Every structure is written in structure tokens, then in C-alpha cells.
Amino acid sequence: MAETRDEREDGIRTAVAAPMSYSDYLHLDQLLAAQSALSDSPDELLFIIQHQTSELWMKLAIHEASSACAAIREDRLEPAFKMLTRVARIFEQLNSAWDVLRTMTPSEYTKFRGALGQSSGFQSWQYRAIEFLAGNRNLAMLKPHADRAEASAKLEAILARPSLYDEALRLLARQGFDIGPDAARTDWRGTRQENEAVLTAWKAVYAEPERHWMLYELAEKLVDFEDYFRRWRFNHVTTVERIIGLKKGTGGTGGVSYLRRMLEVVLFPELWKVRTEL
Description:
By secondary structure, the chain is mainly alpha-helical. It has one domain (43-112, 121-277): Methane Monooxygenase Hydroxylase, Chain G, domain 1 (Up-down Bundle). Helices cover 59% and strands 1% of the residues. The protein contains twelve helices and two strands; from the N terminus they run ββαααααααααααα. The protein has a two-stranded antiparallel ribbon with strand order 1-2. The protein is globular and about 60 Å long.
């Protein structure tokens, strides 16, 4: 398609009609029209954009974590390292988002909280997908998404495959390590139980990193990811307490009390315990 005008200023194309513009490529008209405040509070826009951008980052985290699972399964560890590094950096961005939201005071939030109804971050299926991908497979957490067939189907598809940590353990087995009961697992839906064989295997990897460098590097990439993930959870509970105190969450959860319990969840338990064993 020919351009109707082809003006240039310092080498920058300023054509009125072009085959593909920046706005077209990014669907900016739709994206920037997706913020619909339900109150007259000027602070509601911050709340909406913070959560929308977080969901976009989570979409990318799901893509990268899923790709990392596939790469580990195929013994393509170098690409997996890059993907896992990217997931950790995504959570660094998500952590920074809490810093912006924390500029909102309790008085400001109260002005539009009633407009949220029963909506809650607890209902984010993408957050649940990240937890399931990592290995925290609490099947009770499917219930908040039962009324959304498409989201439920995506979560079920994740549960039907090994988690990120499962793939790391299967790699250990392919490298000749004894992983105990995990070697016989075929049902991936439930949360796995810690076992001493896996702890012993990781201890051997950390005892001789030069000999097992790729496994050692993978282990550290996983710990790096969980490190940032834990910080995200901590920043979440701190932000919520700062803004609403100990009130119940809009979705019916205990709010801060529920979020504090989530701080105790460990995604890759043997990788943290091995540090005590060395």
C-alpha cells in the first residue's frame, strides 16, 4: 500500500498513511481505552492501571515459564536459563509496581473501594497459573475460576503437565541422580511432597558445582525466581496492610491475614533446605 505522504525530519518517517504504525502494531487505541473508572475519584485510574499492567507482565511470565518447562524437558538448558532470568526480572518489575500503588492513602482508596464490588486480585487466573506452573498446585484454588470456562481450561492444561520444579527433578533423574518417589510420579495435579532423595541429589550438585555446572546453574535460576516471587508476596501484603489495614478483602478473603499465610508457601523446598545441609 503506497503512502499518501512521506515526510522525513532527521530520518524519522512521519507518513500519514503507512503499512503499519506504532499505534497499529500495539493496538494502542484499544489498550488506552481499557481504563474505565466506576467512580469520580481521580485515584481510581492508578488502581486500574497498576493491576492491568501487572496482568500484562504476568502474561509474559506465563509465556516464559511455560517455554522454560519445555526447554528443560528437551535438555535445552541454556535457553531455559535465559527464560528463567527473564521471569525473575519480570517479578522485579511487578515488585516496583507496588511502590507506585503505595502512594495511595487509605482515605483515597476508600473513595472508590465500594465500586469494586466483589472483584479481587484473588480472582486473577494468571497469578494462579504462575503458581501452578512453579509447582504450588493447591487444587482448592481452582474454585475462584470455576465460572470462567476458558480460564479453567487453561489452568487444567497446566495441571496436566509437570511443573517447572517437576521438570528440574526429572532432569536430575536423567542425569543419573536418585530422586526417590518423584521418579514414579505420573499424576501432576497434586502438590508434591518433599523427599530426602531430592535433597541429597541437590546437595551433591552444590558440593561439586564444577562437575554439575548446568544443574547448579539451573538450581540458582530457580532460587532467583522464587526470591523475587517471595518479595512480590511480601510487598503485596505490606501494600494491602498500608492501605486497608486488617479489613477483609473485597473478594471475601481475610485480606492481610490470608496474604501472610501465603508468605509461608515454598515453591522449591529442597533447594532452600540444601543451604543448611552444605
